[in-house]
């Protein structure tokens, strides 16, 4: 693991997720650039002292030199955005599979290079678009794939958070500090951090691609540099229309990602706050409450549940699903067999490029007087 | 009453609403242009046969000629959009107060003329933007007025319906037929029918005015002429940003008007499907569930409740609130006294002009390549 | 109307309900035993001064003496419990149909006499068990009648209120005062006031009859005389088991009547706080959200809706449904024709007797050391 | 681990829970009495082959003989109820701390012996009453402890499941088979399996003790031996009244444990299906939605959250909280220091005895004609 020292947020989440199924063991870490924190963090995690590093280059170097049976299988990168690309490239060059937080890189150009490297090396990259790991998200995707709703006409995806309603970045909140700093976060704040999740979810569930956008980004808290709010009108490649709304200043909201998709025959609704439920509405009959862990789910959804219906699974389980599918895929590939279809269902480098493109394009569109901007 | 024969929808709703509080009695009607329907409808409503008309002009003529104590106090117009203006003008000219369905007229120009006539005559006009009649909508407005949320930054208002997901207008649905016909409905379908409600609600609760828009209207069902779906990016006069989404092809949705408004300190959420609840969220403490009929409501909200908390009031009561407030205002004015503040809280001609402006501008903006269109 | 002066609660509700559909007009009233209040209340309601009475006997006497076309069609009695029986008997004797608030009488014996008088006179009595007027309650009943759930095994009905959590009856609350006074309310407080509604609802929806009970009543607020809380274990005539819970000291609750019924194949859930929704659960497929105003409802439910889906109807509409069905029944009987099946669906004298029996038996059971008490 | 082979349910849940925080590692197992399953299960879990046992006695024997630094710290017992006592006693005798599934033993007498042994040895026992591991359950407990609701008057706890609505035990469902078999499950089915959870939760949150009960157990599915449904009237040691309802034949329900507690000033409601929310109601102000992961939680609740608000945590995290607290307690005790207060908050042997007493008493009360049975 690169990044994720004891003072970080998402690194701890990665560890909870990778621990859960007992298939993955954290063996080495360059957990912080602060040697003291790196050391203490590694000890807290019971790492072998010889595998606690203060520098990712040294770690990748030394670990790559170990014999196959001792070598790390993959590297997880949980640093701020501007430190994704270099370690990911190096890890791939050293022959490691890679897990990297989203957005995949700092610039679109880097993302394309990384994707090329993944293709060149034949290694596997997992991009942690966590929300696609929820079983009911997979069920929604399957229903649309199966044509249950007919042609998709309309997509509304929204992601309100309220935690940046004040100038939190100046009050000692480290998370807020780097995320609102263009040097560390990139050219967008809110859209880069959560808008990309929303766009990814919309494309993942619908199976469609965004083709044109009209964006309106805002910095609603005075004194902030990057956008903390925005809305994007969407057009999809099949002619469907959509709206994406994301905000980090929706005061009082937690992490309320929600999506609604409507087709000719019905619509569906999924909200991350109640992730085990998928509402499916029909034109001429009662709406239905599909639930995780039940017997009527599709294989794709069922494979991502751990407990029977009524035992709520949450964010960490969704996260663990990404890791579990990724690990199953690696294991199969290591064994030289084809991974099961369900295992291959995790976001990768192509999603990462698409996310970086989204950031580029919403920023471009928002700055433009012209209504529509082509999405590549 | 003009329009609202036994085959109509909204006329019956008006009657339920005006009956409820026992303050208003329907005495005469030109309920249909079909003489047979007009007659049968009038009889079903126990009208005096001499006051059942087949023609609104005759009705206004004859009723205006009656002695004061027999005269109608006001005229309700519940015809399709293209027959709002002429009867409303005539009624005002004959000295009657007027209740008219929204959108107020067929064109913006007519709306302005009607507003001028209202001002000229000093008569009172009620425009039935029903949703502003709900007590928790009034509570939301009051909370913002009182500054509880701080400066408003963000408004999201949405209005999904699904009833036009098919080409219902060709399947004998009279409601659908005129609403999708530009000759009867006007230059917009979805935005005229429900988008106006959403815009009105946003301005009513927030106390702000829309200043710029960027609209994207769609006709998602093939074979239809007018828009059946759309989204509008909004900017408000205080710098707040917003999104308005309306659709009549959100398959499986009923009438799911919902609004969320966020300020510096918190946010609120109200949904018409559960109208007796207002969710108020705060930055640093638990969200609150404000409920109709409770003892802690503002005077403005409490005056629009009829029963104690836990006895759900709905759409008809909200509608009746408009009539009750209007009737109290008329009664006070007839008595030559100032109506109570709560009674004056109903939508009027200025809202009607603003609604017609909204229709004009969203159509104009949607057709434009330019991103932003000034709202007046 | 007898009772229901301007200082009363339920009388006003009755008037809202009977006004709504424009089929019933209040023409006379003995609205209060206080002559001043009776007069002022009558004037507020635009009653003819000659038909404002201060004494129900005089009213019934004089109204009965009027010619048929002027006579009242029926009498509504909305006095406290101890003044139900005498006016109801007299009204029946004078040939009037009767509407009476629940519980029907003060004692079981009176209830039986009243039922006998109804049968003897052939007149019609409406007992306002309001909650059976909701369309989704009727849909629930129909689903069970149609066997959709299979044999009913389990019924849970609950009715939490919190308004008597303090000794409100000593703080000038007139409602609380008579309802907690055994001389005016009868031998039970909570169970008489709301427990009877819950029991009635359970029997109405399930089509079953309670056959044995085990009751545990409590007076949880010190200084109160009658029960303000209780629970009853139930056994039904088909072998089903049940629990009824009612409380007026469930602090913070409003009027949260809710019922769940489970059969061999599925279960259903209805809650008065969201009355337009009926949840239907199945063993092996997604739960369903049935909604008022939709096209898929049974005739019995649809006949009790006034507006399309998504226009919430509430407590007053449920109440108005009782009146509308009752009025349709009277109208048909006056015309000498058989009322339509849907119109006959309102609670009557038999329900009133059963309610009084419930009160008697829960009080008896609660006082007993023996577990089970036969329900008649 | 004893029990929990690859064909079992709760063993897998224990492993997910103990893995999550990276503090506990499964090192040895007697996972099945079927040697083949034991072997395969152990291999799947990457156990050292020498520590895969087919017999818990051998395992305890051999593991106890290992040097301290290799020895297991504790033993988890996840066998059916009738195989809890013997391995737990032996483990304690061998000096191991113990984790055991509820109900703690097969008989009340065994439970008392086990409790005595725990006291005698000074070892630590964790009984997995999972639902007490949820942060919002702990918040509820804290609110009551702090007196926020005033004196508790009323407790309603319910636990509907529907999975035994058919004779599932005869359809090859191993879970159903042993749970409905008195030889493996004990003298109660539904009350032993889920009623004990409900009773434990009520006492845990309220801080009260049940003092009297009146139980009514049912076997509603023909052909079944043990109860599959029941209700219990409760009286608590402070005079509060309550009702406990549990059913495994509430067709269509999943695992819908829910509790409501009312005091003089307000009430609270928690439901396992939406475990991150605690509704708190007040007499004279809006109800509040308290949420997991927020900054305003008590220390006891906050210590049991892993992620910020809006990242739903579920059943596995609640389960992991038991393990994490237990592990922290062990670690502190091993280090000879006092465990932190939050770590000591997990169910133990006393809860186990109380659960067995509950089973004994509800069965006794249900068979009795007398209304009330003393609880101990």
TrEMBL record, chains A, B, C, D:
This is Putative dehydrogenase. Residues 137-269 form the GFO/IDH/MocA-like oxidoreductase domain. The lineage of its organism: Bacteria, Pseudomonadati, Bacteroidota, Sphingobacteriia, Sphingobacteriales. It comes from Anseongella ginsenosidimutans. It holds the Pfam family GFO_IDH_MocA_C3. It comes from the Bacteria. Residues 11-127 form the Gfo/Idh/MocA-like oxidoreductase N-terminal domain. InterPro entries: Gfo/Idh/MocA-like_OxRdtase_N, Gfo/Idh/MocA_oxidoreduct, GFO_IDH_MocA-like_dom, NAD(P)-bd_dom_sf. GO terms for molecular function: nucleotide binding. Coiled coil: none annotated.
């Amino acid at each position: 693991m690169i990044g994720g020292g004891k003072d970080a947020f998402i690194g701890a989440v990665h560890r909870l997720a990778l621990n859960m199924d007992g298939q993955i063991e954290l063996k080495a870490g360059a957990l912080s650039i602060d040697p003291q924190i790196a050391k203490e963090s590694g000890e807290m995690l019971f790492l072998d002292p010889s595998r606690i590093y203060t520098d990712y280059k040294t770690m990748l170097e030394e670990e790559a030199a170990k014999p196959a049976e001792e070598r790390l299988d993959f590297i997880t990168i949980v640093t701020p955005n501007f430190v994704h690309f270099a370690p990911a490239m190096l890890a791939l060059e050293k022959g490691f599979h890679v897990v990297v937080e989203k957005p995949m890189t700092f610039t679109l150009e880097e993302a394309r290079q990384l994707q090329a490297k993944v293709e060149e090396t034949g290694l596997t990259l997992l991009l942690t678009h966590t929300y696609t790991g929820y079983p009911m998200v997979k069920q929604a995707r399957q229903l649309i794939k199966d044509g249950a709703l007919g042609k998709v006409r309309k997509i509304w995806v929204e992601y309100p958070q309220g935690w940046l309603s004040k100038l939190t970045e100046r009050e000692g909140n480290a998370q807020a500090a780097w995320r609102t700093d263009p040097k560390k976060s990139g050219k967008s704040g809110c859209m880069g951090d959560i808008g990309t999740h929303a766009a990814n979810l919309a494309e993942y569930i619908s199976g469609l691609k965004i083709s044109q956008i009209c964006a309106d980004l805002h910095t609603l808290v005075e004194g902030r540099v990057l956008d903390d709010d925005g809305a994007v009108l969407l057009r999809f490649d099949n002619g469907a229309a959509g709206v994406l709304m994301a905000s980090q200043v929706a005061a009082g909201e937690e992490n309320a990602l929600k999506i609604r998709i409507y087709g000719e025959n019905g619509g569906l609704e999924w909200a991350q706050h109640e992730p085990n439920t998928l509402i499916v509405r029909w034109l001429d009959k009662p709406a239905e409450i599909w639930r995780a862990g039940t017997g009527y789910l599709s294989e794709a959804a069922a494979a991502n549940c751990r407990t029977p219906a009524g035992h709520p699974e949450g964010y960490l389980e969704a996260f663990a699903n990404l890791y579990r599918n990724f690990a199953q895929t690696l294991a199969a590939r290591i064994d030289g067999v084809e991974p099961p279809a369900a295992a291959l269902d995790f976001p990768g480098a192509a999603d990462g490029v698409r996310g970086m493109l989204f950031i580029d394009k919403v920023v471009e569109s928002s700055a433009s007087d012209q209504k529509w901007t082509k999405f590549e």
